[in-house]
Write a structure and sequence with these properties.
Layout lengths: L4 E5 H5 L8 H12 L3 E5 L4 H11 L4 E4 L4 E4 L2 E4 L4 H13 L5 E3 L3 E4 L5 H9 L8 E4 L12 E5 L4 H11 L5 E4 L5 E6 L4 H12 L6 E5 L5 H5 L3 E4 L5 H6 L2 E2 L7 H9 L2
Parallel strand pairs: 1-2, 1-12, 2-3, 7-8, 12-13, 13-14
Antiparallel strand pairs: 3-4, 4-5, 6-7, 6-9, 9-11, 10-11
Length: about 270
């Protein structure tokens, strides 16, 4: 039997809400892994928070975190760091627009300017009570460049400032900018994204695009959907995502991922 590489975004796709995966979804994925298929969850979350979701599927669930900047393979963890040049460009842009960025290693959140209360509340919603994540304010961000994989700017309170920051960051050759929601900017090193991680995994596993199934709902999923021969948009996906995907399934609130996989492998 030919095995498949199955990859799913987390928020709005694999997960029912910010912290939970349904029993049905977990059961279907484990049945497919029992049959020899590979499963990866792919998220913009830092590795430690991605791991807290993966444990709900089980120990065989692999991780693509930080929008592709970190992923598991053969018992090891592959990293693509944001870099000092990228960090400097982000700090300059957010300061110019009176915003704050958050930066992530595998298990630590760094910041230089304290984010507003609404942003802090959003982060708490994604962090389980048992999370091992540490949060540190630092003066010298460059001193942590060897650990930082990615960054994010949340600005639900300041759309004009966010747009200005986006325009400035797009000018940096060191950065790739995407968004999982209109109120944020997700920041990784140029040349790195979920699609690149999937391409590297396809090469490492020998599983081709035609046997790669990808699920997504947000703009930061577009690249990986295009890297898959079987691309699936959730019912709750943004219109641009549905336009790119080959298939559409029900929403994450209706176990859309499980529904599609049950039909496909029936």
């Amino acid at each position: 039997m030919d095995n498949y590489l199955i990859v799913s975004d987390v928020d709005g796709t694999l997960a029912y809400d910010e912290q939970h995966i349904t029993a049905r979804t977990s059961r279907v994925l484990n049945q497919l892994m029992d049959a020899g298929h590979e499963f990866y969850l792919a998220t913009g979350r830092m590795y430690a928070l991605a791991a807290s979701m993966a444990t709900q599927v089980g120990p065989r669930a692999e991780i693509i975190a930080a929008n592709g900047a970190v992923y598991d393979f053969a018992g090891a963890r592959v990293h693509h760091r944001l870099g000092e040049v990228g960090l400097a460009a982000i700090e300059q842009a957010v300061a110019a627009n009176d915003l704050a960025a958050l930066y992530f290693s595998d298990d630590t959140v760094y910041y230089t300017r304290e984010p507003v209360a609404t942003v802090q509340a959003m982060l708490t919603a994604f962090t389980p009570a048992t999370s091992p994540v540490q949060v540190c304010q630092v003066a010298d961000l460059a001193a942590h460049a060897a650990q930082i994989n990615n960054g994010i700017v949340f600005a639900p309170h300041a759309p004009v400032a966010l747009a200005a920051t986006l325009a400035e960051l797009k000018q940096s050759p060191a950065l790739a900018v995407s968004a999982s929601d209109p109120t944020n900017l997700e920041l990784i090193a140029n040349g790195v994204d979920k699609a690149v991680a999937i391409a590297e995994l396809q090469a490492r596993t020998g599983i081709p695009a035609e046997r790669t199934i990808v699920f997504g709902d947000g703009m930061n999923d577009l690249g990986m959907l295009q890297a898959a021969g079987i691309s699936v948009a959730m019912g709750n996906a943004m219109p641009a995502v549905k336009a790119v995907a080959r298939y559409e399934t029900a929403s994450n609130k209706e176990d859309g991922l499980a529904q599609f996989l049950e039909r496909y492998f029936d």
